[in-house]
Design a protein that fits this description.
This protein is mostly helical and 146 residues long. Strands 1-2 form a two-stranded antiparallel ribbon. The chain is elongated and about 60 Å long.
């Protein structure tokens, strides 16, 4: 299984904001991680739309967490950024063309596995992903890409 790039970037943005506890710009976060500013901006916009971050426009603007790290559920975030209902074709009845659907156990097995995966992620909060905020911030902000 592979999380999409938007989910990866969303988690990175939120983890860095939780670690620093301060407002940061998209440019600053992109430099810190050495990743595309344009892709990061799209994810930041979506995080704002979903209510995970607050944004401040203009000079000196940026974003900050809108939710306390211990209240931000990782499983919920992943569900909002991933298209898990289309994990394989047969999980989407409207577009399924597989002739084996009525005799195959793949859909059931994958549905159970995804359920277990998400249930496990539901047991984590953003605070769990950054158990040592100061160390995390020092490590990523002091990396060669920043």
């Amino acid at each position: 299984m592979h999380l999409n790039l938007q989910t990866d970037y969303a988690l990175r943005i939120l983890m860095l904001l939780a670690a620093t506890g301060r407002q940061m710009s998209v440019d600053e976060i992109a430099r810190t991680y050495g990743i595309s500013r344009n892709h990061l901006a799209k994810v930041a916009h979506r995080l704002n739309t979903l209510g995970y971050v607050d944004t401040i426009r203009g000079r000196g603007g940026g974003m900050q967490l809108a939710i306390e790290p211990k209240r931000l559920n990782v499983g919920e975030l992943v569900r909002k950024f991933e298209s898990l209902e289309t994990f394989v074709e047969c999980m989407t009845p409207a577009t399924n063309t597989c002739p084996a659907i009525s005799v195959c156990g793949l859909q059931g097995a994958l549905s159970l596995a995804l359920h277990d995966f998400l249930k496990r992620l539901d047991s984590f909060t953003l605070a769990d992903l950054v158990p040592h905020p100061e160390r995390y911030a020092r490590k990523v902000e002091g990396s060669p890409t920043s």
